[in-house]
Amino acid sequence: MNSTDIEKNNRETFRVLLNALSMPGNVEKVNKIFNSYTLSIASTLLYSEVSYINNTEEEFTLIDAITNAKQQNIQNADYVFCCSLDGVLSEIKKGSYISPEDSATIIYLVNSFEGLNISLKGPGIDKEKKATYPIDEDFVYEFNKRNKSYPLGNEIYFLNKTNGEIKALSRTTKLEVV
After folding, report:
1. What digits encode the pLDDT tens for the residues 64-92?
2. b/e per residue, 152-173, with b = 16+ CB within 10 A?
């Protein structure tokens, strides 16, 4: 019988998420839990005092039972699990100056990181870093616009759903199309 140490997996996944966010452009890797990379991240991030929306094909029933997180609409969710970024940034919360932590984090499931070549600048990056992300120029514009007034803004994780690799963009990262 296979057993899964959920707490150990959550600690390891949390470290991976922190590393990806603190060093934009770097690729990290999460392990599966319940045969899913997405559920590994959900198990790590969700708990009874946060909310989420699941706009993916993944079944979250087990995660709901384990975490007791609240399902919410996209405008009020703390975590947005999605397979498309169309219109997502314009709908999610980005915090306020009194409560910047009251913002949403996106977990975007992708098949690969291929896409737009962009230049990254900001904390965690030595001068400048070139990277490829599965986004378009409209996303770059909207991301920069939403994150221009730090500490307001959003973070986004790009999760390769086939191999568990993950990249991130922090609210402090400035993007430029190359």
Report:
1. 999 999 999 999 999 999 999 999 999 99
2. bbbbbbbbbbeebbbbbbbbbb
49 in helix, strand or coil? coil
In whole angstroms, give the CA distance from residue 40 to residue 62: 11
Q: What is the DSSP letter of 106?
A: E
Among residues 83, 158, 172, 149, the alpha carbon closest in space to that of 116 is found at: 158
* Phi and psi, residue 67, nearest 5°: -100, -25
| CATH architecture of residue range(s) 6-177 | 3-Layer(aba) Sandwich (3.40)
Q: Give residue 2's Cα distance to chain centre.
A: 29
- The three-point CA angle 105-108-114 to 5° equals 130
The structure's pTM equals 0.94
Pairing state between β 129-133 and 116-121: antiparallel
**CA–CA gap between residue 94 and residue 113 (Å, rounded):** 25
Q: Across-strand partners of 160?
A: 110
Going from the C-alpha of 8 to that of each of 5, 14, 31, 44, 64, the distances in angstroms are 5, 10, 11, 10, 19
**Phi then psi for 165, rounded to 5 degrees?**
-75, 150
Those residues with Cβ within 8 angstroms of residue 157's Cβ, 6 or more apart along the chain or in another chain: 17, 20, 21, 41, 105, 106, 107, 108, 166, 167, 168
